[in-house]
Amino acid sequence: MAPLMTVAPTAFAADSPSGSVVMWPTLTPAGDQPGPAPLHKATEAEQGVYARSQELDATLRDAAQDLGYTLHVTDTGPVPGKMRDSDMIDRAAHEGAAGAEAGTWVVSPRLEVAGDNSFVVRIVAVAPKSRELRVRVEVVKGSDVAVRGLVMLRDLLSPAAAAQAAAIERERARVDESARAGLIAPLRSQGRAVLAINGALFGGYVGYSVQRASGNDDPRVLYPLLALGAGIGIGSALLVSEEWDVGTGDAWFLAGGAWWGAGAGLLIANGRDTQPFSDRYSWGAAGGVIGLTLATVALTRSKADEGDAVLTHSGGGLGLVLGGLSEMAIRGTQPDVTPNYGAGIGAAIGVVGAGTLASFVRVSPSRVMLVDLGLGVGALAAAASASPLLFETPVSERRARAFALITGAGTLVGGGIAWFLTRNMPREPAVSRTAPRSNTGMSVTPTGGVIGSSATPTGIVPAYGVGLTGRF
């Protein structure tokens, strides 16, 4: 195996995965436009490219080491005729770092004159044992070639990019193993299982509602209806997922419309004093069907992701709480009396409003849950501060209204603060390092584990520790 040069970890290595990298010399042309010249290493005769290539080579080699990778210093790059993309993939599958599994990162910078003292900079990278090319391309001024090349390399070899590449390779290996075993994971309608489970439960509930609405308590009627409803629900879910590509977000979005609609119908029926008790199940079934229909109509306009589904469920829960508090404030209801009617109306408005909003905006699930946490903390803090209003017995309508209003206001304030603090959260977990970032706020993440390594006569010894990373 070729000897390696081990470098001490730097500030960039704290978060980096251990690994080795082969840095090919800068080749030209970049490949951005087809041309007669084959891919080759720049010569001194190519004065416009040669000097910039030398500068880019030195910068990228230093940057790879700064990122914590072990550099193959004796690998001088490919020979003529072995510079194709397939050659990079083959090279990435062999000769990893000493003591590590086979495989190494392979990076091939490309440079081409674009005219007017501008250059096309293309960085191509292949992860260890990967079959995927990761590419960054930019057109920059001659004086910025090295600087932009460094930023592009960090984009490709950053810890987030390395983790993503490793996850892709693990998934590919799993699919290959499944294929060899004759089992292939379904790539279409990933939400099939979620949709089938919710379809079975909702179908069983509809069957139960039919039996309860009829006033018949005979179990010989109940169990066949439950089985029939669950069977229809499962069958409908499987047919829908076979005909259309139903993702996980789509399935939970449909479930939110159905279950929150059913809950709203039940609560509204319970809150109507003139409504017969046996009819509340029919109201629940009707509400579920209406909610499912509205969710289906929304999905015909655009698909829903996990963030949309979480937002829809969050809207139903928020509407439930605020609707109940609103009824308490209007009627002066005692805290021990359940405000069913207001809670049902609020849940219906909340789920419909959030589902409509989800069709027009995109938000990450983590941000929605953090805002929900802020709503809950705000509600608890406001209820605790207003609890002295409930000390008298019996509680007057005026005090009950004040308690409901203070709790509702605290809920909204807590949610508003959480929304403001999470305004700069990215929608996706992986964000390009070249993307503009706000200079306001602070983002700190605790880290722990391997933070570096040391070379010893017996090999590389990891160094363990804890720390903080982020923007201060």
From TrEMBL:
Positions of transmembrane segments: 221-239, 251-269, 281-299, 341-361, 368-390, 402-421
Keyword list, A-Z: Membrane, Transmembrane, Transmembrane helix
Name listed for the protein in its UniProt record: Uncharacterized protein
Organism per entry: Pendulispora brunnea
